[in-house]
Amino acid sequence: MNDKQDQIKFDRLKTEHLPEVAQLHIIGIKEGFVGSLGNKFICRLYQAMIESDQAFGFVAIKDSRVLGFVTCAESVWGVYKHIIKKNFCKLAWAILPKMFRWYNIKNTIATLLHPSETIKNLPPAEFLSLVVDKNFRRMGVGKKLIELGRDEFRRRGIKQITLTPAEDQHADEFYNALRCKLVGHSQKRGVLLNIYIMEASDGEGKKNGA
Ligand SMILES: CC(C)(COP(=O)(O)OP(=O)(O)OC[C@H]1O[C@@H](n2cnc3c(N)ncnc32)[C@H](O)[C@@H]1OP(=O)(O)O)[C@@H](O)C(=O)NCCC(=O)NCCS
After folding, report:
1. What is the best residue among 138, 139, 180, 192 to mutate for testing ligand 1's pocket, by most ligand atoms within 8 Å of CB?
2. Among 5, 78, 102, 163, which one is least packed by beta carbons within 10 Å?
3. For 107-127, how does the pLDDT look when each residue is reduced to its tens digit (9 = 90+)?
4. Count of Cβ atoms closer than 10 Å to residue 125 Cβ
């Protein structure tokens, strides 16, 4: 491990990380409908996830700067429900200036309908977003963030996790390297998604010295 990697620390996603996380999300996720709703909305959304007991996230930090993050949900619908129930007004306020664009109205509806567009019987637990700053890629940061998420899912009794990166994110080699299994494709708002499943028990043996 070189110096640059050595100083990278990992932590739970917290409110203080959100402005930098939102920025990374906007830059890193090109398919990005959520990104198109702006920094304020993403901060509100991720704050609601921090407050939900069905969601969690991790960040990579160097010199007090966030250089990567992952967000995870036990059930995306469970998290949406929590968010709508507890944070509807705050989120609506954050989204309002952007909401009157027809493109965004259509996409909000499509996002809420997302489960009906995808293949059936996927594990409800999901990795939602993962981004590593361009200057820190290929140093094992993405892998470590996914491993932290996977370990937390396992602690919560979850056996399998779904991942749905947009095909044009070109993240396939990354997911293959993490031994995720490609199980199909789906379309969301005209964007082709690859659907992977990860076993939460992967890596457990390694940790136990097996
Ligand atoms: C995908 C992403 C998170 C990977 O993060 P990362 O920190 O660079 O990944 P890691 O260094 O942990 O890579 C682990 C392994 O995955 C594979 N891998 C990662 N990026 C790769 C690439 N661009 N090309 C080929 N293989 C790659 C390699 O096998 C790598 O191991 P190695 O470097 O020892 O060969 C990062 O490229 C990114 O933020 N992309 C933009 C956002 C995105 O696509 N997010 C995922 C969908 S939401």
Report:
1. 138
2. 102
3. 666 666 655 456 778 999 999
4. 24
Q: What per-residue string of b and e applies to 56-76 under the rule 16 or more CB within 10 Å gives b? A: bbbbbbbeeebbbbbbbbbbb
For ligand 1, the distance from its centroid to the CA atom of residue 20, given in whole angstroms, is: 20
Do 62 and 19 form a contact (C-beta atoms < 8 A)? Answer: no
Strands 65-73 vs 126-132: parallel, antiparallel or unpaired: antiparallel
- The answer, yes or no, to whether any atom of ligand 1 lies below 6 A from the CB of 85, is no
* Integer angstrom CA distances of residue 46 from 7, 87, 100: 26, 11, 22
Instruction: State in Å: Cα 169 to ligand 1 middle.
Output: 10
Q: Regarding the domain delimited by 3-207, which CATH topology (the fold level of the hierarchy) does it fall under?
A: Aminopeptidase (3.40.630)
Query: DSSP states of 13-66 as a string?
Result: --GGGHHHHHHHHHHH-SS-HHHHT-HHHHHHHHHHHHH-TTEEEEEEEETTEE
The CA angle 155-158-161, to the nearest 5 degrees, is 120
Q: What is the pTM of this model?
A: 0.86
Q: What confidence tens digit (pLDDT) does each residue in 25-61 have?
A: 999 986 666 766 778 888 988 998 999 899 999 999 9
